[in-house]
Amino acid sequence: MINKITIVGAGNVGATTAFLILSRKLCRTLAVVDVQKDLAKGVALDLEDSRFVFGADIKIEASADLSAVAGSDIVIITAGRPRSPGMSRQDLIKINSSIVRHVCTALKRKAKKAIVIVVSNPLDITTYVAFRTTGFPRRQIIGMGSSLDSARLANLLSKKILVSIEDIDPAVFGAHGKDMLASRMTTVKGFALGSFLSSADFAKIKKATVERGATIVGLLKKGSARFAPAAACLDLIEAIDQDKKRLTFAAVYCKGEYGLKGICLGLPVIVGSRGVEKIVRLSLSAPERAVLKKAAKAVKKSISQL
Ligand code: NAD
After folding, report:
1. What is the 3-state secondary structure (H, E, C) of the chain?
2. Which residues are near ligand 1 (CB < 6 Å)?
3. Which end of the chain has fewer CB atoms within 10 angstroms, the N or the C?
4. Which protein residue's CA is at the shortest distance from atom 29 of ligand 1?
């Protein structure tokens, strides 16, 4: 069992992730940090009251002070502004990069061994900021975005072709944003998509996957998606806790893989107790390589403006 998990940012995604961690009894101490001190405290008290039903003897801590990250095995960064209707993830770049930099400066001092799951948007940029600011080995910095996009594709596909969600093996990676690569390597129980739907229908599903976050933002009016992002965080935490060697998709710092260098982008990875233990090299088609290249170009441009 993990000793300590800290969630920085007790808003929608942070609080929901904390609740999932508690419900699965994944750690001994769960710390919730937020600049809004009362919010952290209120979320912590509510979580504490859930301990009885789950039989979870977990110590819950609340703080407005980032020194609470000390001794964490895993830190989840959900601090920052979410999108409002009409906003793209890129619109959050300045404010959230500076928040993530601030948080990661504390991690560098107080939680050197922590595996850091970055959630704040724009994800590929904040993951890069976390990697650069902490100076941690790249295996310790995991950007959660592509696994959520993959889960969204799986959901939409399952509804379209009327096959159990468990039988869908989605593959979405690259940018967590409009340039994401929803790959035709996605299969249904290992069988190629062509047996289940036309290229035109897959194109529609890809578009809906790209727009899914914005669709939810538009409907909620205030705030953005929380349940599926929290579930995607849980998946990573369980992979780390149980040393699962889970093949998933996450933003990582690239050192030449797929021709990408000096940026963070979602790639197929193996996640285990040491964090990102391997980047899996798949052979992509030329159009798929072009999507990654386009995404990398956009991310590079954003990084140069930091
Ligand atoms: P939210 O506004 O509900 O919560 C964010 C919290 O961060 C707030 O409570 C705020 O007080 C806190 N905060 C701000 N600065 C802080 C700091 N310096 N230290 C500690 N806490 C701080 O937002 P949310 O809906 O939970 O979303 C959080 C972030 O996650 C957003 O940037 C959103 O775009 C992003 N997000 C990413 C994904 C993904 O797939 N990667 C999915 C959903 C949301």
Report:
1. CEEEEEEECCCHHHHHHHHHHHHCCCEEEEEEECCCHHHHHHHHHHHHHHHHHHCCCCEEEEECCHHHHCCCCEEEECCCCCCCCCCCHHHHHHHHHHHHHHHHHHHHHHCCCCEEEECCCCHHHHHHHHHHHHCCCHHHEEECCHHHHHHHHHHHHHHHHCCCHHHEECCEEECCCCCEEECCCCEECCEEHHHCCCHHHHHHHHHHHHHHHHHHHHHHCCCCCCHHHHHHHHHHHHHHHCCCCEEEEEEEEEECHHHCEEEEEEEEEEEECCEEEEECCCCCCHHHHHHHHHHHHHHHHHHHCC
2. 8-14, 33-36, 39, 78-83, 92, 96, 99, 102-103, 119-121, 123, 144-145, 148, 176, 223-226, 229
3. N
4. 120
Mean pLDDT across the chain: 96
Q: What is the pLDDT of residues 242-293, one digit of tens each?
A: 999 999 999 999 999 999 999 999 999 999 999 999 999 999 999 999 999 9
pTM: 0.97
Crossing angle of helices 227-241/146-161, nearest 10°?
110
Q: Confirm whether 102 is a catalytic residue.
A: no
| Low-confidence residues of the chain: pLDDT under 50 | none
Q: Is-contact 44 68, C-beta < 8 A?
A: no
Q: What pairs with residue 63 in β-bridges?
A: 33
Phi and psi dihedrals of 137, rounded to 5?
-55, 150
Helices 199-220 and 146-161, packing angle to 10 deg: 120
Q: How far is the CA of 77 from the centre of ligand 1 (A)?
A: 8
Instruction: From the candidates 4, 89, 152, 176, give the one annotated as an active-site residue.
Output: 176
| Among protein residues, the one whose CA lies closest to atom 13 of ligand 1 | 79
